[in-house]
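Try it yourself: sequence plus zinc ion, in.
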Amino acid sequence: MVRVKDFIRRFEQFAPQYLAESGDPVGMQLGSTEQTIHRVLVTLDVRPEVVKEAIAKKIDFIFAHHPVIFRPAKNLVTDDPQNAMYAELLRHHIAVYAAHTNLDSANGGMNDWLAQQLQLKNVQILQPNYQRKIKKLATYVPEANANGMRQALAAAGAGQLGDYSAASFSYAGTGRFTPNAGAKPFIGQIDQAEAVAETKVEVVFPEALTNAVLAAMFQTHPYEEPAYDLFTLDNASGEQFGIGRVGEPQQAMTIREFAKFTQDAFAVQGLRLVTQHPDELVKRVAVLGGDGGKFYPAVLHQQANVFVTGDVYYHTAHDMLAAGLSAIDPGHHIESIVKSKAVPLFQEWARVAGWNDVTFMASALSTDPFTFIV
Ligand SMILES: [Zn+2]
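Structure, out:
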């Protein structure tokens, strides 16, 4: 039996909520995390027609990129179409979870999917926003318990270094203590100074695993009062996260040619090109899903001459032109790539986790509000 919370636990290893921009209402939005799930619908937007589709397809969990509740509801009067939609979801026991800017910044997430679709090479993060810290734990155990401790810490995920796992360092020493009245010592007696041959076991791990690693240490440690040191390292080896991607085109193209290539890559009816140099060659391309215009200074900083993003404002377009930057706006709806990319990813997680009775499917609807008249 798979519950919403099981899915969330797996998903947030991939796109933790702390990667989201502040104020972005990501995470569980509607329904209960305790609900069991069998049929999951992946969608860019939760709109009334998507809710109808979900009901028809007997969906019990919707995974959406855009939060369904973006502005707080002031009332729950169902004459309002937005509120009526919440009521329909609750009435049909459809839980909704949203992964927005945390999915944008996740490695292998939204912006990597868009960069892949544009066939960019040498892809890097456009604007880093988070460096995962590395922690080190040292604990002191009787020699006979050292092996068990090393195994428990490795099982909790500590000691992953590149292509190596279960990495640790141990050295021998002497632990000294005097159990006082009330203590129930594993070794030694009340009021008698004790000296024990101990092993110091050291491991490193990403900070996100801190709770799991500490829990494993406490569970495995034989002592009533385990001695341990926990610290944060300044090593810059933690995983880097950030919004947007920048890379080079697969082959030499002018900006006009690249605009056409972008249109085909995302199969959009039309797009807007902001440029004063359509025949200049594309050097580097930045891509950022959604409404990314405000990030154009980061694009200039990364020395890209083309920026692919949605919802570019009139005045921002002027600013980009004045700065010598060209922009391609294929619309916000290119983020519907979430449907074709997230479904196989979730299916793979389900296979590994043995979630045999959960089916993941993409919404069959387009939620693009815009059409082009040509
Ligand atoms: Zn978006």
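One thing you can check immediately is this: The pocket of zinc ion is lined by residues 66, 289-290, 332, 335 (CB under 6 Å).
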